[in-house]
Specification:
Bound molecules: guanosine-5'-triphosphate, magnesium ion
CATH class of the largest domain: Alpha Beta
CATH superfamily of the largest domain: P-loop containing nucleotide triphosphate hydrolases
Strand content: 15-25%
Shape: elongated
Helix content: 25-40%
Largest sheet: 8 strands, mixed
CATH architecture of the largest domain: 3-Layer(aba) Sandwich
Structural class: alpha/beta
């Protein structure tokens, strides 16, 4: 098993039929192994016609726990003097500014709260874009050029009764220049409660891992995946979230700044065929188990045969050949 706690340690079992494969999975991974995928290879030799992909229940639980952030609570004005501060950082063009507006407007984020935006991206084109989006959504917007302006901007948004302030930043270029240093200092002065590393779903996982190192050094606490609509069937998303190694509160799946944002962990876990709903008391629901599927091919047929969201992740799996 890999040392990375987000590695799902998937194993693929191939044999003449699914019953044999289920039995082998249960024997090797435990009776509570989670079956993620069942495939029948019609063109393979008879001894290798069936395949199931499974993971130990404990690995799925670790992945779920790492991916799922605790619920955000609306700040209580009686006890808290400052709004909740959520910052967005990440590579150029990842979708930070569009996401800032979505967060302020959409009910799956802060649509039911009063949200304001502070932008640290003072490039003329960027300001115009965000200004237009903020106006369309009736969102108070403050522009901060210097760290010294942070306190005033926060005060004005508090006066506008904002419960949450979303911070937009310029794209992180590999070359840190004077502008980058200025906005980084302003970001530190804002003392965000959460810093979300925004990464497009089309980003290569190995490059994302490199981006993550810098972002975590700068205080990133979560990852936020955009452009999920641009990857057919969620291709490679599991691999990407593992490379980023942080909880995912939201994912974005379109260009509409008033919509196209969803709760992240449930969406990503759903692509794996794993429920994300923790019943009261925080106890995970019983997963589908290899043992439960093992008695008959009929049961196997009830397992969805296509989980394309994890196709590329499967390149990392181990294959076990089983006979009768
Ligand atoms: N398909 C799709 N496009 C998106 C999504 N989110 C943002 N975009 C588009 O991606 C492009 C860049 O979005 P921005 O919000 O400007 O990205 P940014 O990270 O703020 O860019 P910089 O500030 O230049 O670093 C725009 O054309 C957006 O409409 C998404 O979830 N899906
Ligand atoms: Mg931007």
């Amino acid at each position: 098993m890999a040392a990375d706690t987000m590695d799902l340690a998937l194993a693929s079992f191939r044999g003449p039929d699914t019953t044999v494969c289920f039995r082998a999975a249960a024997a090797e991974l435990g009776d509570d192994a989670v079956v993620l995928r069942t495939v029948l290879h019609g063109d393979a030799v008879p001894a290798q016609r069936a395949e199931i992909v499974a993971a130990p229940a404990s690995a799925i639980e670790r992945y779920r726990a790492r991916l799922t952030p605790p619920r955000l609570m609306r700040p209580d004005r009686a006890t808290r003097q400052l709004p909740l501060v959520i910052a967005l950082v990440g590579p150029t063009g990842a979708g930070k500014s569009t996401t800032a507006t979505k967060l302020a407007r959409h009910d799956e984020a802060f649509g039911q709260w009063r949200a304001g935006i502070i932008t640290l991206d003072t490039r003329p084109g960027a300001l115009e874009q965000l200004n237009a989006q903020a106006r369309a959504g009736d969102i108070p917007l403050e522009v901060v050029y210097e760290p010294a302006q942070v306190a005033g901007a926060l005060r004005r948004l508090m006066k506008a009764r904002c419960d949450v302030v979303i911070i937009d930043t310029p794209g992180q270029s590999p070359r840190a220049d004077a502008l980058a240093q200025r906005w980084s200092a302003a970001l530190r002065a804002l003392a965000p409660d959460e810093i979300h590393l925004v990464v497009a779903a089309t980003q290569r996982a190995d490059l994302a891992a490199a981006v993550r190192v810098d972002a975590v050094a700068a205080g990133a606490t979560h990852s936020l995946i955009t452009k999920v609509d641009e990857v057919p069937g969620g291709h490679g998303l599991t691999e990407l979230t593992i490379a980023l190694g942080m909880p995912v509160r939201w994912v974005c799946d379109g260009q509409d700044a008033g919509a196209d944002i969803r709760n992240g962990a449930p969406r990503l876990l759903g692509m794996l065929g794993v429920s994300s709903t923790l019943p009261a008391g925080g106890v995970a629901p019983a997963p589908r188990t290899a043992a439960a599927h093992s008695p008959a091919g009929a049961a196997a047929a009830s397992v969805p045969t296509r989980r394309s969201g994890i196709r590329s992740f499967f390149t990392r799996r181990r294959t076990v050949m089983v006979g009768r």
